[in-house]
């Protein structure tokens, strides 16, 4: 699924092909890690601490709870 970023680049979420995600915030790498599943355009997240969240991809944009993330172009 690739890397998704907020418009200001502060939050970067890598959705890995093995069903894991790694989210960086500012200079804090791996601020949140866990697993995700995809059903159609809907994502369900389970953080390694047990916290859950959801997201939806609409018109090429990932709406993840209160965040709006865009696909990163080029290297991650």
Give a short summary of the structure:
The protein is mostly beta strands and 76 residues long. Helices cover 0% and strands 64% of the residues.
State the total count of DSSP E strands.
8
Structural class: mainly beta
Percentage of β-strand residues: over 45%
In whole angstroms, the N-to-C terminal distance is 12 Å
| Share of residues in helices | under 10%
Q: For the report, how would you describe the main beta sheet?
A: 8 strands, antiparallel, barrel
Low-confidence residue ranges: none
Radius of gyration: 11 Å
Provide a count of the helices. Answer: 0
Name the shape in a single word: globular
Widest sheet, order of strands:
1-2-3-4-5-6-7-8
Quote the average pLDDT: 94
Following the backbone from N to C, one meets helices and strands in this order, namely: EEEEEEEE
Tell me what you see in this structure.
- With 76 residues, the protein is an all-beta fold.
- Helices cover 0% and strands 64% of the residues.
- The protein is built from no helices and 8 strands.
- An 8-stranded antiparallel barrel has the order 1-2-3-4-5-6-7-8.
- A hairpin with a 2-residue loop joins strand 7 (61-64) and strand 8 (67-71).
- The protein is globular.
- It starts with a strand and ends in a 5-residue tail after the last strand.
- The mean pLDDT is 94.
SSE inventory with pairings:
Blueprint: E1 2-5, E2 11-15, E3 20-25, E4 28-39, E5 42-47, E6 52-58, E7 61-64, E8 67-71
Antiparallel strand pairs: 1-2, 1-8, 2-3, 3-4, 4-5, 5-6, 6-7, 7-8
Q: Key terms for this structure?
A:
76 residues, mainly beta, eight-stranded antiparallel β-barrel, 0% helix
């Amino acid at each position: 699924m690739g890397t998704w970023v907020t418009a200001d680049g502060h939050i970067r979420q890598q959705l890995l092909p093995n069903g894991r995600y790694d989210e960086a915030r500012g200079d804090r790498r791996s601020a949140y890690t866990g697993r995700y599943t995809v059903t159609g355009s809907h994502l369900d997240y389970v953080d390694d601490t047990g916290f859950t969240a959801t997201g939806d991809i609409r018109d090429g944009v990932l709406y993840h709870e209160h965040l709006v993330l865009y696909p990163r172009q080029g290297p991650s």
